[in-house]
Queue: 4 jobs
Job 1
Amino acid sequence: MEASCLELALEGERLCKSGDCRAGVSFFEAAVQVGTEDLKTLSAIYSQLGNAYFYLHEYTKALEYHHHDLTLARAIGDRLGEAKASGNLGNTLKVLGRFDEAIVCCERHLNISRELHDQVGEARALYNLGNVYHAKGKSISCSGAQDPGEFPEEVKTVLQKAADFYDANLWIVREMGDRAAQGRAYGNLGNTHYLLGNFRPAVISHEQRLLIAKEFGDKAAERRAYSNLGNAYIFLGEFEVAAEHYKKTLQLARQLKDRAVEAQACYSLGNTYTLLQDYEKAIEYHLKHLMIAQELNDSVGEGRACWSLGNAYTALGNHDQAMHFAEKHLEISREVGDRSGELTARMNLSDLQMVLGLSYTTNSSVLSESHNVDYSSHGTKPRLGRRHSMENLELVKLTPEKNWNSEILAKQKPLLAKPSAKLLFVNRLKGKKYKSKSSSTKVLQDASNSVDTSNAQFPQKRISPDTLGDEGFFDLLSRFQSNRMDDQRCPLLSEQDRLAVAAVSSTPPNRVRKCECTFCLFNVFFIYSETCDNRQLHK
């Protein structure tokens, strides 16, 4: 006896719920082939097919079936079905980058839900509109090199709309007592405030997200909240607080046995301790990051670790180790075809050779044999085959041109670098002039600094994006030199500064000059988003 359309559809739904969307699709499509005169059932099958294809990342097919669902819902006068189909279409169009069409669909979902006094549907529509505007804002900003809060007005306007929709969603879900929905909204609202440069409101939102994650025992959401809090505190200049949050991120990543996130947390901690001028700890965490990157065959992460280690060793005046890691960075950049990274590595090597008074050729390093790193002592190992596991991460830059308030710098511990490593990178954060006294509440726009620099000259030469080439946020490879963005992880990478070496005229000619260099603070951190959309799984 042949199974009916409804029986096949119910089995497809069961399989999708169990996580086997591919098998579920087969049953749904079989149900469509069998057919039914019940148009509401057929509409529901189209909706489930669209959702299943969405989760299989086959967005064109998802779009096709959600269109079928919308057409059928309109034909039978099913307003609730039309609202849900419109919402699902909006989410799918957003992923495809068709933001204006997505907004039209989500607004239709919102309007119909309000017309039907469907509070749940209204909340979902508001949340989805926030997600669409959030994604649109990041997409528009992908060609720039701005830090959070410094995007063009067009981008800020779009991101502010996202924040407004998240706020409206929160007002409803709080009224409904839906704590899970509140958690998602707080997380994404925090990320939006972060991009707008509203770092204190971002902290408030992420603290609420953390509280709700703990209520539900959701360790993954808790870990995301800690990491996002660390990012916000970095831009508030509260580096010690940021470090504590990243340590909690690291602890949770280990509990969850997520080695990739563990590597990211180590990397963020390495960057934070660089900002704290504690280079020994920075090296410790970057070496841990390097070890995990090698374990995961992650060439992108390994290259980033080598770059960071080279700079940290330079700051400590250990130029031999710096040279080794600069060479490894060059080798990896060549291997993965990263022209930007290769150019940076070459310049770093050139600078180091100038400091050491040596000549360098890219074919054979003068230090490659005599100054090899003992990998066993660091816990790292020689490089084997690799995969790219850091491509879809949300990266946020901290550029060398930031201006920090003297109170912030005064909070930090005394300088830890050796005298040979001049801490010019701290002063490099003074690269931009104070824009307006009215913006004094924005920490990153303050130009005062507790370090006495009255008699110092600091090089500010940058590599322009035009020189390096900006390959866009959706490339398969995260780069050092350009901003990156992915819909789920929205990477924002900074431009990278070359090491600028200042020669000391008083150094005796018979001694190897010690490096007076600006530390290259491209320091990237990882942002974690909540669930991207609020799909209607069942009708």
Job 2
Amino acid sequence: MDQAAADVSLWKEIHERSKLRQAQINSKVCLNVGGKIFSILMTVLLRFPVTLFSVMLSTEIWTPEADGGDGVYFFDRNPHVMDHVLDYMANGFIRTEILTPEDLWSLKGDLDFFQIPYAEDQNSKVLRPPFDDSVSEHDKSPYFNALSDMLEHLGSSSFQLPERFPQASITASCASILDKCLRLSSSLFISSREATEGIRKWRGLEETVRMLAEASKEQVNLDFRGRIFATCKSTLMKTQWFEAMVSRWQPAADSGAYFIDRNPRFVDIILEFLRQGSWNPARLDPKLKPEFEKELEFFGIENFLPKPPPASVQKQTILTMMHEFQGQGLVVGCQYAMLSAKWWRSWKLQCGYDSVLDQAAKLGPIDNSLLLETVDGKSVPMKTLSEMWDYEIVPESVYDRLVYWFGGGPKILGPALRDYKQQVFVEFRKLQLLVRKSSDMKTEVSVWFSRTATVEEFAVAMCQKLGILREKVRVWDFHAGTRHVLLEDTTKTLEQSRIIDMNKMLIEERDAHGRFP
């Protein structure tokens, strides 16, 4: 028991020294992430144990201030995601509800890259450390901070922090302290196996830091109309256009950046794709897709379809969007998309959307072609389609997201309208009407009108098309080639007037005496 008490006493001393060290380290660290500069307290970067940051700052492997350097650590990563990473490190948590599922996926990817621990609490919708990192006597974080500082210096009789940590040092036998720390595993809530894994993780991170230090020497700055982006040469060499630029151009003498007279709007997305082979489609406004495709063509970038995220992220992304849609219902005036029900069912199976998971479900690009037929030389939805059996109605944003992930089409849109019964519906196919005028009964004109259009709107449009004065005509339902019903109440809609698809219509003109026949 005396030895155990002595060991506990020694551990408390190490604990106190660790806290003293963090209190002394109040300097800032500058990070250049994709061209955006972040300044953050060193204590924040050292908050979590055995991370890429702790290895980077606790060793002399990567010293950007050496040889006249600017002292800024360069990472060829997405700066948008880094904002969330640093928020998580500074606060010790981040609320997942403020992030889109895809942004959360990107954040988790970068937390994994930097080896920052996290666990997702679905109930409170928070991302937090998998252990309690608050200050307590048996806190894991100080233990690992002290341990991680010793790992690089095992075997030496004393441990001296690098010069970047002024007035802070720990002198002891590192090997002895490590042995005693491991024997205290029961009281510290950590096993010797976990400690061994921590050591192995530390060594692996040393290699990663070494690689990053080498990659930072090939930093390339790009000036897109005054906005600076930073990446690595190896990233740019993946495309012929940028490879030629690096090989043949000279960067500006004043800024050290290659000037490219193009709009910077899409550069973040392009660099994200070149770095990782995938990109977050949520970053691109679908309305800007034509301009985006022109930019890809300019830089000679092909096969730019984003890789679909994991099935769980797909499910959460679409589930969130569909819940919002179902909560507010159809909104009059908004556009909605038609989606093949067959493809939709396959997608739901492969991601477990309805709690039924079938990873073997075959899923290719969206195929809406079977929903269409050709009429008057243009593709329109077939008349016989049934909602839920043949197609699903989804918000345009949901359709665009699925197309970004899987490709395909064609896109079939329809507006949400209100019928005369005040019911809201989506009109994907208008009424095809066959129209004649009384002065030329041999000529039949095919036109398309919404069923919510009034008889008056139909009459005005047809008069303009046929070159007739509105006050000189009246409209007949010309069913079966006869004057079936005179549409006298022109305020009624075509649907109220019982006009159906392929209905024959007659525009009857007054005679020379101003009378109708």
Job 3
Amino acid sequence: MTMIFSLLLLGLISTALTDHHCQGYDHTRYLDTDKTYLLCWKVDWPTETITFKVQADTLGWVGFGISPDGHMPGSDMVIGWQKSGSGYLQDRFATDRVMPPVDEKQNVELLSSSESDGKTTLEFRRKLQACEPKDLPIESGTTRIVWSYNYADPTSVDSVPIHDKKGSTSIGLLSGTGSVQAADLTGTYEHYDLLNKNVSVPSVDTTYWCQPLKLPVIANGAHIIRYEPVIQPGHEILVHHILAYECNADIDPYLNVAGSCDSGSLPGVVRRCRGGQPLLAWAVGGQGTTLPADIGLPFSGTNGPKYVVMETHYNNPQMKADFIDASGMRMYYTQSKRKYDAQILEFGHKVSTNEIELLLPPRMSNIVTENLCPGVCTQQALPSGGVNVFATFLHSHTAGKRIWVKHIRNSTELPEIDRNDHYDFNFQDITLLRRETNIQPGDDIQVFCDYDTSKRAEVTIGGLGTMNEMCLAYLFVYPVPRLRTCLSQIPYDDLTVFIQDAYSNGWASATDYNSATNNYERRSAVTQTVKNGLDFTSEQSRSSWRQFWNSRNRQFDCQGLNHVDLLPFNVDDEITLPNVTQPLNTAPPPMASSCLTATGKPRPGTGQLNTGIVATVETTDGNGSHVQSASLVLLALSLLVFTLRQFD
């Protein structure tokens, strides 16, 4: 038995995943690559509040904000600092790229502040929901964070100097904060690295590279309990995503054979494993995934996969020819198997090299595609008790801006499985749901994607490239069902009606469609028309496209392991979207009924604050030793100052 040691690193490691500065918090992340700005956070669902701790390498002011798009305008921000033994925190709203003005209503509560070892630390709390129009809610999915700091304190509360350092990033603040939580992995675990073997990345825009790999041989099987990317330094932008597909064939003779996934030179047995059942999934921006304590992804043993084909998407828009890559995935595992075997299921729109049925006109800001896994599939492919969804991975490309997954049972819309209204192509992470969702046999699953092509001059179609589009939802479930993938598309016949209308009305360039003698030639002609010959400048062309796009017919695939169809061909062909008689109430949530602090604002020119703006619970002296300050005393002093001023 040959071991490919260049692709395997087997050993014991410590997996302490929480920064020591964040004790008492559930989640932590550095917001910059230099690790000068640390964020810790935890959520309390009974009170619907979130508590933050920020620590920056400065003895000046520190800023933190929630942004609608990763830019400063429209951001809900706080700015805080420590000065003369007192902590200051101001709730602000950025209207432009200038110092944000202070909100009239202060809806953030300062819990502590300190300065020590050249760092300023602030702890504060706020409601998850907005308390007033200038507050941004913290929602499921991606949260866009903006941060900043200055090396000096403000000279007064009304005179805050501009930042010395700033940045933005995306985080899933609510992932793993509910009943579904990552296991505590502090301790020692075996790990195994699945790595590409010094790939000379082709000098083309998009490459999908397939690397066959062998998993550890464990007689009784094992469970993967965490996995994370291993990205070669300097290749963070090059490596877009990595999928490790289970391979049940014996590919031992081909472990030294790797190449473009679509190359004819790659052995057929290897190509057939690609695109099947994902064992591991990661995309750009993801930090790694730790599974809940009672769930594991099985491998090896009697029934688990022994091999994988690892697909790496290289995004090389500059078409550089000097990338040599050895990136991959690291999986942590245990031979003490957990209670449940888990599986990743794929839902959404069909994926192919030229998916012309996913046709997005240019210069449009809201294009929603609706994809279906019908109850006829889940009825046959799920166990009698259904499956429980505990995590999701939602995926589209650069035109995608929102993704959500609906759940329908007996024409009644149940709570959504997941939603991301702030999708960020550069931050695609796995979300641990607030609570599990049970999908029963016969349930319909719908995946929606909302695209924005307003800045594009040409048609966008579905496909593998970054500038093509996808609409996929990977659901992490247990127990393991027969189902692996359930993907749909608008029927090709509906597309040809639209294309023929385009030919007839002169807003599609001439092709050899009418002279085609077989389906292959017709599809080639339609593909060329879609990619190069459609003119969407007229309202007539857009109206005809809307009729095609609003089709309620869907073709779908309902497949199990190794791409096996789970339904007869005459059933696994075409179906209509479900008729929902009891839709879910999707009205936006109301403003929070109660907020955390009293209202108040700085008195212009005085450098002093009214009640509710200044609060300290913990401060430090110049030597870094902690001094406890009673918040009631500070509040009383603030009230006294406020009262005396009434007689000025």
Job 4
Amino acid sequence: KAEEMAAAKPQLLLSSILDEADGDAGAMLVDEQQARQPTTDAGGERRSCGDARRYCVECDDQVAVIHCEECDDDYCKLCFFAQHRKGCRAKHTPLAIGDVPLEVIMAVSPAPDARPKQQEPQHGEGSSPANLKMDASSSSSTGSSSDSDEGNSHSSFHSMFSSSWYYGSSAKPKNRKVGPPPDCAKNKQSKEAETVLERAKYIPVRLSLKERKMLRLLEATLNANNYTDRVDITGFRSPMHRMHEQVKGICAVLSGLISAWDYKAGQALLHDRDFAKHATFFQDVFEIGRRHKIMNPEKMRTQYAKLVYLLQDSVSPQVQEALGFNLVKPIQTVHAYLTQCGAAALLSDDYIVTATNEVVPAKNKTRRDIQQEIKTKERCIDHISHKYASAKIDADQIKTCLYSICDNNSFLRSNRDPVDKVIEYLRALFKDETAQNSLSIYGGKDGARLTHTHERQYLYVLQSLTLWREIQHHMFKLWVLAEEDLLKPGNAYELRDTGQGLNRVQHSPQIYRVMHTILHTTQQRVGSWVGSSVIHLGDHNVPNAIMFIDKYTQIPRILNPVVLTLHQLEQLNETKLVHAYFEASFGDTEAITIAVLRDFFQHGFDGSGADNFYDAGSCIDGRLTSAWNWCNTLDNKPFFIVFLLAGFVGFDGEWK
């Protein structure tokens, strides 16, 4: 009896919180008797549900001939086909109304995937998301199933949450012999394979087609939600009132998700308020959104903060007690998934580096060379996928993991390589001081807060860029650890005014330790250190881990336009009018390159990050703030027209 009372406590607490403002859950549901109240037909006459004629819920004009079991509505033939043409509705089950057989009705204009009702399990305890376990050991993953295959799948929760759609079909690996790739494709150094193994621990698994559908549902839900606007305010009378508002907001998001995914399950949820029954569904949806954001930092720029702050509130003891379950599950990484399936050894395979490298065109590569690299890479992928395939993981699943590592390499090329290119420019053009390339700055002049000679400023810029490069290299690791700090139970935050509005100030011990390791590595590589080495994290400058990560995802947005502009100078110079402008204004393309980079290296690293030396100035985070200040003044620079000619739109826009 005591156990029954303890199990009922979270449900009673949740009901009491939701009843404060929303009233009884039954008021949110459409009562069946109320829904059958008399309506008015096209001629203005009243007709009741008892009438032999049942009218279409959409047009309210034609007699209904089809009843949709999932929608629980009556339709005329035309409206049913129109409303169930695609998406999840295309999988709904139609029932015939009256004496006309359903086959006769559907034979005229069959709707996509609309079929008569069959004897199938109803949505209940046996098919709810809470009772459906995703077993990766009996499934495979291609992540590229066709739309026709989707349309033939059943619409119940069991089919949508079975492991086969998470990781593809459950077919056994084919016994096809694949010849080994050439010896030249083997890893040249053992350290390369060790690097892949270490990075795989923090590389998320690529989303499948079904997961992308759930991602779109999550994004739409977060777009329509204003959770943080209602919770992160100072108008609450007590912490308990704020906790009640958090529970209401979280339950509103959960109700919207389940109702949009399965209408009947959403109706049942509003009635019984048993959110724990769908715990697996909610955990999967939120994990998919977090995984997608880590792999694509430029996506979900507004929705991600709502998502993380909602999950951050959900792990607090009071809210979790009210909900009765945890909304957070670990990120599905390549290493974790392969270890679970007993195939982690492939990360140390002789061909793993070639199989996961990105094939990049270069000036010294012919088309034949590129095609040869692609074929060699495909042979390596094919060889590894069939070598390590087993009953627990098939070849297609292994390929998905390899492609996920390829995605990480692509991320590094687009985010880390621009920093390497700028470092290359710095060493080639500014190592020795001349009258044209002097980097000297003076405090109080042109907004600078620091006073550096050319040699000191050169070292200051070099160490800052090297630090940025290392951060971009470890970005996935930093992001995973940042989420662990943010969503760790017991790691409470404080809502306070930091000078830039109300922010959640929270300690982040894991990411702080990793940042100190990266900083120490950078200091050893550069040889000496100029300026402050303070890392602001969990204070009024950088309140929490999400703010920290967001700052450093801006580095490619700052450097990419600079690198792309300088890269296109020679091509622009081939145009006669542009060549005349370059010659009259700057002299030649090399002079433009030096002018752009000199201004950036001087005023993008002049310590103008904050009001004092300790808070920013030359500190770790202040260097990035100074670079943003330079970006804000680009339109006043004499070379701004060069950026426009190269296709520059903005540091936060697309390149044209």
